[in-house]
Amino acid sequence: MKHYNDVNIKMGTDSHPLFSQGNTLPLVSRPFGAASFALQTQGASAGWFYNPRHKQTEGVRLTRLASPWLSDYANLVLLPQSGEAVFDAGRRSTSFAQEEMSPAYLSLYLRRYRVQMELVPGVRSAMLRLRWDGEDGARLTLLPFAHETSYRISEDGLTLTGFTKAGHHYTHPDFALYFAFRFDHPVDGARTVTSEGEMSSGAARGVGLGMSVGFDAGVRSVQVRMGISYISEEQALWNLEAETGGRSFADFQQEGRDAWEDYLSRIEIETDDEAVRRTFYSCLYRTALFPRVFHEYDAQGKAVYFDNASGSVHEGVFYTDNGFWDTSKTVYALYALICPDRYAEFVQGFLNCYDDTGWLPKWISPSELGMMPGTLIDSVLAEAAVKGLLTQEQAEKALEGMLHHSRVQAEEERFGRRCVEEYRRKGYVPRDLARESVNQTLDYCFGDFCIAQIAQVLGKTQIEEEYRARSQGYRCLFDERTGFIRGRNADGSFPADFDPFAWGGDYCEGSAWQNAFSVYHDIGGLARLYGGAVQLEKKIDELFASEPRFDVGAYGVEIHEMTEMAVQSFGQCALSNQPSFHLPYIYALLGRREKTVYWVKRAVRELFTPDAFCGDEDNGSMAALYIFNMLGFYPFCPASGEYVLSAPSVKKACLRLPSGELTVLGGPESNGNSVTLRGKELGERVAYADLMQGGTLAFA
Prior knowledge:
By secondary structure, this protein is α+β, with helices and mostly antiparallel strands. The chain has two domains: 4-263, Beta-galactosidase, Chain A, domain 5 (Distorted Sandwich), CATH 2.70.98.10; 318-699, alpha-1,2-mannosidases domains (Glycosyl hydrolase family fold, Up-down Bundle), CATH 1.20.1610.10. The protein has 20 helices and 35 strands. A ten-stranded antiparallel β-sheet has the order 2-5-6-7-8-17-12-11-10-15. Strands 1-3-4-9-16-13-14 form a seven-stranded antiparallel β-sheet, with no helix packed on it. Strands 18-30-31-35-32-33 form a six-stranded mixed β-sheet, with no helix packed on it.
């Protein structure tokens, strides 16, 4: 079955800084490709530069934006025009019609300029087909952002090369997007201008300098091949030839479609509900956009990449645009099932980042940004090791990097952990020394469990024992008086005042209700703090039964995550954000799977549509949550090598695994009371290794 046409790439795009339905972009791209494109309808809105309700466009943007809360980089805008070149965003905007946007194809008719624009992306390239109706003169305008930019036109007028230093404050000063455009008609020098005036020498350079190349008066159709690089103009030309050379537009378009069909067909679902099918495959599309390829291949076929730490070119693979605080919870557990080879290559890229900077990445885009608590790359690396996806050498390197940030505090706050020595001595991060101290502590404890897991794989017993003990530090923050894991001062005292509904301060993007149960590796130990499984179950009952109230707390304003929780009817379980993803599954681990099934099935029915997510989608993490919820199992603790069972919401699903096929049988009415794999009864969990053998996973 083909699923390319089931994908709605606009899912989640009707968003606003004050209310997120995904905060996504309609990215036209190859799976994990470096060259991603989206319509820009309002560039002045920063990260929210596209909205599906807008009726005009300022052009098609080559974008690397991984989240609207970040800065874009290696970006520029393409706009075919007729007549005089117009560069200013407010003045060049045009209405459009005949719009088609799919994962690997964009087409629209620009009414003002009377031109049909089609674009098909490659991994590091693109092909454009432009057709003008009018007689006012055809041109293609390139619009960089406020950075140093350079252009050069070849003597035959068929090739335009250049660069724009569209980086941000953590990229190397030499970092640039290099580009190469090859036209099937020579540009007309008399019609070629820059945003500062006529261009006479065939070359131009300036800050934020736009370029508009015109074509002869009789030219009404132009085909353009485009290559990009982060290394050089020569490499951009090489990427152009390697990816588009010898291919027709139709062949290139089919190649992109085939790449997406290959990925989307790795999970086949049966459902009578078209909305469910569109939502599922739109989510599966989202999981194949990040992390993005950052490496390239030279003329000898070697993988090479620009190192933003040193400004030099290194051999090897590199992937970027990923926040592990979000993606570690769901996305990599999906990759482990449907594309384990790609997962292993991702890891090699992250290890190359460690070699370059001395630190494993936390939030890279393209270099380390240092956002969000914890070092959740620990989970991604340990999961890969436990699931047998790494070589011995990779696992050793991963453990080395994990031990480094657990023992050494970086001079730059964006790297590694905070309060390393205090956490080692006390077992927790003191609230009077670091913000979001509860999340930092819980994430470090989980990270230490991950270190123990990878040490076990490598047979390093002493390290394993040390870090399993360290992973129990979360118990230091449990306050029996309030019944919550709380922030604690360096002197050991808990603050007298406590409001479990107050957001921020000791907690990240939530209150105690959303964050105090994030002990993924030891729910049994957490239950003992409450007096047993029954008492913890009652606490989770209270969480779901409470009204979705909040106090703005340390944030001082109502942030969008508060609003999104308030409009849902899931109590204090804010499934609109990553800290709450696992909360329904705690019931299953306490022996009450029927409660997990109830909340999970409500979530997939009520919180997702083909057009919208229930909060920030974040690099595929929420999309993967939906997929797991629909399939009936979830990576509660990814580094454990197990998935927690609930019940599927589709009649049948077939996962195309490297070793065969896994068939999931269930349906919207299945309650998960009995679950078997290849006829053998399962308990609360199923092992990754067992799933990868294929067969039938049946939910009664």
